[in-house]
């Protein structure tokens, strides 16, 4: 097992920090097949996405070197993936008033995904994102296995008008959704019938959905007589669902198979999740918006070594979709949400050409620092982290993840034979009233182990 060493040459075993999404100790990646259980034929549609997401530290493998591409993911795991890739996008962190969600009954501060869940989901995610439990409290159900329809609903609020095609006519959207053979639709002739149809258990008296029934398939309701004459009504679930399903189908990010089956209750696999996330990034990049949401740069599929593209309709092996046809980025976007940008400098993907340098960032306001350095034959990597308030580090060495507390820094680790090291900060719970937390990550490659140094108190 890889060992992290301090400046005093003290060996520290890696801490296994969080389950499933960041399981720890994957084998080094190869260009053709990143993990031994990722079949180059059966998983050809996901190879490019798995490789690039693994390289960037968004998702890693398991201790035995496997990726488990067909294993389902939880809502918490999906959230952390989004949080890591789109590190400048924090809707709830910057929300206020009725738009801000302050707590979930089932996500305590010690939950491994507490910060990503609380920073990401503002009140706009109440369709698919969260609901009300039996005690009338907001519940997220972080360990629930995410199904395809629920993911589509969540994506209906994620990036909203930049991911959803709001220019599509309501009639076109309802026609497309009505063509899905396994997602029911209802056409109601008037508002009275439409209101009555909503009383099917989709909402509790509070107006929130029932968290215990999250992921259930409720009919998408439309006002009209059929696909040639239909518009949206006032049901938020139906409208979010219709817009998401139609937009995701049109963009190729998530779509039905050739027979018209969306498979709404199928669990989202790990391979599907990284592929969908990759497509979202590439779609935003094609519109020139990716820099508004992420400081991480992903190459286009055509630029990836050994890439077969990520064009799949969600795990069926289809080559349709936008994975290989997204146009190249046209710039850094045009504005964005309050959480995007705000004049913050974007940290580089690599600290200098030689891996030596520093990144400073207000992690409380701008999100965590994440960067990759490559040893290129050097023997040791020295790193340190300074901050106003305590910030810790995840250190991912060729897919093998370790957790380092700030008190154990500075630290030097052997990197002879290592391809890449990913650093990702994790802010501890902030002091009450704090509005700033400037952190500075410093890295330096060495040919020899340095002399003993004093640790932080």
From TrEMBL:
InterPro entries, sorted: Cell_Envelope_Struct_Comp (IPR051465), SLH_dom (IPR001119)
Transmembrane annotation, as ranges: none
Span list, region Disordered: 300-353
Keywords carried by this UniProt record: Signal
Protein name: AncA
Record bears the keyword Signal: yes
UniProt signal peptide: 1-31
Composition-biased stretches (Low complexity): 339-349
């Amino acid at each position: 097992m890889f060992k992290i060493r301090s400046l005093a040459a003290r060996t520290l075993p890696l801490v296994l920090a969080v389950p499933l999404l960041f399981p720890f100790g994957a084998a080094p990646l190869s260009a053709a097949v990143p993990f031994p259980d990722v079949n180059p034929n059966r998983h050809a549609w996901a190879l490019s996405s798995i490789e690039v997401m693994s390289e960037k530290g968004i998702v890693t493998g398991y201790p035995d070197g496997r990726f488990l591409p067909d294993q389902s993911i939880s809502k918490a795991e999906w959230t952390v993936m989004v949080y890591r890739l789109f590190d400048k996008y924090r809707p709830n962190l910057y929300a206020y008033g009725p738009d801000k969600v302050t707590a979930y009954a089932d996500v305590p501060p010690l939950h491994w995904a507490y910060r990503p869940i609380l920073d990401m989901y503002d009140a706009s995610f109440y369709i698919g994102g969260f609901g009300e439990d039996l005690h009338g409290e907001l519940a997220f159900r972080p360990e629930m296995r995410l199904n395809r329809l629920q993911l589509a609903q969540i994506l209906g609020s994620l990036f909203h008008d930049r991911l959803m095609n709001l220019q599509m006519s309501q009639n076109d959207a309802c026609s497309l959704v009505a063509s899905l053979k396994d997602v029911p639709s209802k056409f109601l002739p008037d508002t009275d019938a439409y209101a009555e149809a909503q009383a099917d258990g989709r909402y509790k008296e509070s107006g929130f959905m029932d968290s215990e029934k999250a992921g259930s398939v409720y009919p998408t309701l439309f006002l009209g007589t059929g696909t040639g004459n239909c518009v949206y009504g006032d049901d938020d679930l139906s409208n979010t669902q219709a817009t998401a399903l139609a937009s995701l189908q049109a963009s190729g990010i998530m779509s039905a198979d050739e027979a018209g089956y969306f498979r709404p209750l199928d669990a989202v696999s790990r391979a599907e999740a990284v592929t969908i996330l990759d497509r979202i990034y590439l779609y935003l990049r094609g519109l020139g918006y990716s820099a508004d949401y992420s400081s991480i740069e992903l190459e286009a599929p055509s630029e990836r070594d050994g890439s077969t593209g990520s064009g799949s309709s969600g795990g069926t092996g289809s080559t349709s979709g936008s994975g290989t046809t997204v146009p190249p980025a046209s710039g850094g976007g045009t504005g964005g949400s309050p959480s995007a940008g705000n004049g913050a400098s974007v940290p580089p993907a690599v600290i200098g050409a030689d891996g030596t340098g520093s990144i400073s960032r207000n992690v409380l306001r701008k999100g965590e620092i994440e960067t990759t350095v490559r040893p290129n034959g050097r023997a040791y990597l020295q790193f340190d982290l300074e901050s106003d308030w305590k910030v810790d580090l995840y250190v991912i060495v060729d897919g093998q993840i370790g957790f380092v507390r700030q008190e154990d820094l500075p630290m030097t680790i052997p990197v002879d034979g290592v391809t890449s090291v990913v650093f990702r900060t994790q802010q501890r719970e902030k002091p009450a009233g704090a509005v700033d937390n400037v952190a500075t990550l410093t890295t330096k490659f060495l040919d020899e182990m340095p002399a003993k140094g004093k640790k932080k108190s």
